[in-house]
Design a protein that fits this description.
mainly alpha, elongated, single chain
């Protein structure tokens, strides 16, 4: 079966509207699809607010300074490690990858 040709779009809005009303299976042969790696793709981030004791925040600043990393990056790293550790103890898979 021959696949239809994808039209040229004047704008992203036009393309978005087109794909909202058309099936990609009519335009792409998924049997020929190959896995791809996207090493530079950044995960979607969500802003959260935490109330932490000042002493904990100061300790984080000290550790971050010693490691020469921003303290919020250090917090994300420590939180991620803790979540991975907890999940591995329960035999669950990670959702942070």
């Amino acid at each position: 079966m021959s696949k239809e040709k994808i039209p040229q779009f004047a704008s992203e809005d036009d393309e978005r509207a087109f794909w909202a009303t058309h099936d990609t299976a009519d335009y792409f042969d998924y049997t020929k699809a190959q896995p791809t790696l996207m090493p530079n793709l950044r995960p979607t981030l969500k802003t959260v607010s935490l109330r932490l004791p000042e002493s904990l925040v100061e300790s984080l600043h000290v550790i971050a300074h010693k490691k020469d990393v921003p303290y919020q990056s250090l917090m994300k790293m420590l939180l991620s490690e803790g979540v991975e550790r907890e999940l591995s103890l329960r035999g669950e898979s990670s959702v942070t990858s």
